[in-house]
Amino acid sequence: MTAGAFTGAGRRIRIQEVGTRDGLQMEARFVPTEDKIALVDTLSQAGLAKIEVTSFTSPQAIPALRDAEVVMREIARVPGVVYTALVPNVRGAERAIESRTDELNLVMSASETHNLVNLRMTRAQSFAGLAEVVRTAQAARVPVNVSLSCVFGCPMEGDVAGSEVFGWAQRFVDLGVRGLTLCDTTGMAFPTQVSAITRAARERWPGTELTLHFHNTRGMGLANVLAAIDAGADRFDTSLGGLGGCPYAPGATGNVCSEEIVHALQLMGHDTGVDLGCLIAAARRLPALIGHDVPSQIVKAGRRLDLHPVPPNLDAVRERALARER
Fold this sequence. Notes:
Blueprint: H1 3-6, E1 14-17, H2 19-23, H3 33-44, E2 50-55, H4 68-74, E3 82-86, H5 90-98, E4 103-109, H6 112-119, H7 123-139, E5 144-149, H8 162-175, E6 179-183, H9 191-204, E7 209-213, H10 221-230, E8 235-238, H11 258-267, H12 276-284, H13 286-290, H14 297-301, H15 314-323
Parallel strand pairs: 1-2, 1-8, 2-3, 3-4, 4-5, 5-6, 6-7, 7-8
Helix pairs in contact: 3-4, 5-7, 9-10, 11-12
């Protein structure tokens, strides 16, 4: 069986950019508001299905995204692109709705320990608060996606039981959310695990928009994407330049890299709808914005068929080689 057949080549795979939120929130340097807007506008032209623009959290909690309202209001929206934002509570939801956000993304962890450390709440407390956010969004007719962290493992607890993952996810589905994102928060996922969980989720919730969110912490990001595609997934969060990470995975690389994933999937015959050249050009702008290099290997090495010029002395080398045969 060929690699293309193994991964269901030819399917439409939707790429959802999270670097402008999940990536920039981790950066020490504040990216100026006008540069954030310009970056989102460039990404909007690249053919992405969804862009997570920003986060409507407290400016004190995430100062890197303290300009959320301005950015969300002033981006140039392209029809067909969903502009989403992370919101932690009802006040954040109200700010996002006022700023014309297309979708609200809510986050809690499948791991009790991670939820306590990351959000300072038990899972039950998080769910109660987020259920109120869902009701607020539904009253405003704004769709909701829920991102469940640590689905594939917790850096403090280890493996997270499937019953915990699916139990909490089901509670959100019962609230009527449009989408679920299963998150590999610290890069603990591996392909056979991904395949099993993805298949089970698709069987349980065929009417729910399912997204997979992987990190490349242990170098298995692309392998996990391909395993999820084999299991029927067709939506993936990716991050421009491979930005992102997690404070609970010290020294780790960030989210799976948008241009690397698109490059690989397009070579395998999948339809991502993404202009890879546009994506690479945007990624090459990142170091100047954030003040350091990015993990992206496509930015460093180029696409597979970005060929190099032959040496200027090639004709002389050929002549010498042929002379040896005479």
